[in-house]
Specification:
about 350 residues; TIM Barrel; 8-stranded parallel β-barrel
Length: about 350
């Protein structure tokens, strides 16, 4: 089942194993993907689909040091090396489009500006400055209504640049407490204009971004990621089933390639209980990817029987570049070195051996 082909939008994938988007913080100067990124993604080209690390659509969208962008010619050229290499190895790769919203630090913003958000509500916790110091999150600046169209345009431009860079499609990052998610949830969105209040209004920004991106790619090459369960980045909503159910139905009209949904973690406190793929199945007719916490073939195949069409693996893909082969052969899975997950060089990035190399 996990190794059966599946049609996802315009693509037919050879298996149902997705490489989840994972921040690795190894971009170079100007937030340009380095040449080593091509090797990293190419090593993992046997995934049915690769979704890249989150990639900011504008300087305002930056939240972390050394994350890549997709808004300059140099960034496009850096990503083109990645897509060319992945395609040469027979892989398929989508770029994840990202704006962090309030999850940033003024030192990462142009002219030390405040990060922006739907409402001026500071998240709990700490952010990293440009010189790697930890400091409490600042209270973001609430976006003016007239500014929102400009951010939608940034997503459109990011989609256009992803096409120039040779990607097979794009995924809109609407999850994990970043800007789109901040608009969706009433814990972070207390607006009184057309982008706040009702579920229809809170989903408006997501719908407008999706419409803009689909205008570039067509729905069959666009996916959307949502995280209805997570408390990550100090997120919460009083009725997640209402807002995420509405969001899924609102996305239906775009005939998207897929909906990518993260499962609840043990630490997540979800009003009404965890929301999984089976909740979205009656609301969204196209493929659903389920993600978060998968550590075995058995878990993945159980998820395929419970409403999902594909399963995304995250950290296992870091330490097992040929993960599909290992899962198919029931081979041992190598553990990852968490100390090297974020930042650094080839260590913990491209030096994990394939199964064949490990046996040899």
């Amino acid at each position: 089942m996990l190794f059966d082909p599946v049609k996802v939008g315009a693509l037919t994938l050879p298996n149902r194993i997705v490489m989840a988007p994972m921040t690795r913080s190894r971009a170079g100067a100007g937030f340009v993907p380095q040449d080593i990124a091509a090797k990293y993604y190419t090593q993992r080209a046997s995934a049915g689909l690769i979704v890249t690390e989150a990639t900011q659509v504008s300087p305002q969208g930056i939240g972390y040091v050394h994350t890549p962008g997709i808004y300059t010619d140099a960034q496009v050229a850096g990503w083109k090396k990645v897509t060319d290499s992945v395609h040469k190895a027979g892989g398929r790769i989508f770029l994840q489009l990202w704006h962090v919203g309030r999850i940033s630090n003024p030192t990462l913003q142009e002219n030390n500006a405040l990060p922006v958000a739907p409402s001026a509500i500071a998240p709990k916790g700490e952010s990293m400055t440009i010189d790697y110091k930890m400091t409490p999150y600042v209270t973001p600046r609430a976006l003016e209504t007239k500014e929102i169209a400009g951010i939608v345009a940034d997503f459109r431009k990011g989609a256009e640049n992803a096409k120039k860079a040779g990607f097979d499609g794009v995924e809109i990052h609407g999850a994990n407490g970043y800007l789109i998610d901040q608009f969706l949830r009433d814990g972070t969105n207390q607006r009184t204009d057309q982008y706040g209040g009702s579920v229809e209004n809170r989903a408006r920004f997501l719908v407008e971004v999706t419409e803009a991106v689909v205008s570039v790619w067509g729905g069959e090459r666009v996916g959307v990621r949502l995280s209805p369960n997570t408390n990550f980045n100090d997120m919460h909503d009083s009725n997640p089933r209402a807002i995420f159910g509405h969001a899924a139905k609102a996305l239906e009209r775009f005939n998207l390639a897929y909906l990518h949904v993260t499962r609840a973690a043990p630490t997540d406190d979800v009003p009404g209980g965890p929301i999984d793929a089976d909740f979205f199945r009656p609301l969204f007719r196209n493929p659903i990817i389920t993600a978060a916490g998968f550590t075995s073939k058995e878990q993945a195949e159980a998820a395929l029987k419970n409403g999902a069409d594909l399963v995304a693996f995250a950290t296992l893909f870091i330490s097992n570049p040929d993960l599909p082969a290992r899962l198919k052969q029931n081979a041992p899975l190598a553990p990852g070195d968490r100390a090297t997950f974020y930042g650094g060089d080839a260590k913990g990035y491209t030096d994990y051996p394939s199964l064949e190399a490990a046996i040899a």
